[in-house]
Amino acid sequence: MTANSEATSSDLVPALPAKHNAILRWKRVTNPSGPQPRPRHGHRSVNIKELMVVFGGGNEGIVDELHVYNTATNQWYVPATKGDVPPGCAAYGFVVDGTRILVFGGMVEYGKYSNELYELQATKWEWKKLRPKPPESGPPPCRRLGHSFTLVGDKIYLFGGLANESDDPKNNIPKYLNDLYILEIKNNQLQWEIPTTFGESPPPRESHTAVSWYDKKQKKFWLVIYGGMSGCRLGDLWLLDTDTMSWTRPRTSGPLPLPRSLHSSTLIGNRMYVFGGWVPLVLDDVKVEKHEKEWKCTNTLACLNLETMTWEELDLDTDEENMPRARAGHCAVGIHTRLYIWSGRDGYRKAWNNQVRVCCKDLWYLEVERPGTASRVQLVRASTHSLEVSWQAVPSASY
């Protein structure tokens, strides 16, 4: 792995959808201030309110940098960190709980993977190495990359990834994983747990995605696993009921997206937005799956409504000038009603004998829903000459 601009008349055309019956338009972020991070792939991002926090990744070496983008002020900055700063890593696990960010595993050198856990307290940008206790019945998680690491309620769920069965990093013997660990983080006694699950488990995979979804009707949390890589791209969807610890493979309706890996899945409301990744090359509408020899990057966007389990068709402006170019290994976050994506690598086509990698340096966002309405106007102060009124701002409205 090498691993505020002036508005034009066209900018003022409303581009906000009412759910999904209006045209969605990507917008490229232009002229951000501050030190912009160098392009990369295999990095991860989380959001703390309006901030997008980006760490790690690779581009001619593994990156150990931490960058923060303020979506409200269009500004990048590099916080001064302290404490047990972790080594650079790529394809690792990255979650946020309030202002506490946790990093697990990933690639620290070519062929050398990690199973270390670090915490970053964003209120003071201080790193701390954590040493959770091993499970009561079994070993702790092995070194890995490409796993999912997802906060569901007050617990983190670690699933799958890729391990190196060789002790020699130069002699890489890949092993796809489908193990499941739980780490409770609400107390100071951190300990890994190997849960007992029911039903058929998802097959081994890496470079998949996972999101946490709270079903308001059933009043329960679900872990949603999608796609990944296990010798070929995967397009399967799995749900874990975190109350009963039962796996199910739900039936979906709507047009299925192509199988993919190194994509992003971002939950906004009840919808999971799947962007980019590597997909099998499609020739004459025939997918090359079982023994795929060739695949390519994509810039397609798919949307799964988790309430109805329907892949919804999006009315998306597909003019190439108005879209991010194809990429994989990018990062994505949902902030209010916006989906943000940054960087990633692009090779328009990738074959066994042709691995062209170009890292993107652009930042885009997509308004996926109409922002919420402002609150009622409040009377602040009144006199015989004036009225002072106020209402809460709508954070992601452009105009």
Can you walk me through this structure?
The chain is mostly beta strands. It is built from no helices and 34 strands. Strands 6-10-9-8-7 form a 5-stranded mixed sheet, with no helix packed on it. The chain has a 4-stranded antiparallel sheet with strand order 1-32-28-27, with no helix packed on it. It has a 4-stranded antiparallel sheet with strand order 2-3-4-5, with no helix packed on it. Residues 1-19 and 349-353 have low confidence and may be disordered. It has a single domain (26-283, 293-390), classed as Neuraminidase (6 Propeller). Helices cover 0% and strands 42% of the residues.
Could you provide a short overview of the structure?
Keywords: Autocatalytic cleavage, Cell cycle, Kelch repeat, Nucleus, Phosphoprotein, Repeat. This protein has strands at residues 26-28, 44-48, 51-55, 66-70, 75-77, 82-83, 93-97, 100-109, 112-121, 126-130, 148-152, 155-164, 174-184, 192-193, 209-215, 220-229, 233-241, 246-248, 264-268, 271-275, 278-280, 282-283, 286-287, 294-297, 301-305, 310-312, 331-335, 338-342, 345-346, 350-351, 358-359, 363-367, 378-382, 387-390.
Quick tags:
399 residues, nucleus, five-stranded mixed β-sheet, mainly beta, single chain, HCF1/2, Neuraminidase, four-stranded antiparallel β-sheet
Q: In which order are the strands of the major sheet placed?
A: 6-10-9-8-7
**Topology, number of strands:** 34
Mean pLDDT: 89
Question: pLDDT below 50 for ≥5 consecutive residues: which ranges?
Answer: 1-19, 349-353
CATH topology call: Neuraminidase
> Which percent range fits the helix content?
under 10%
Count of individual domains:
1
Radius of gyration, in Å, reads 22 Å
> Can you tell me the CATH class?
Mainly Beta
The number of helical segments is 0
* CATH second-level architecture: 6 Propeller
Distance between the termini: 42 Å
Subcellular location: Nucleus
Main location: nucleus
GO molecular function: transcription coactivator activity
Organism: Anopheles maculatus
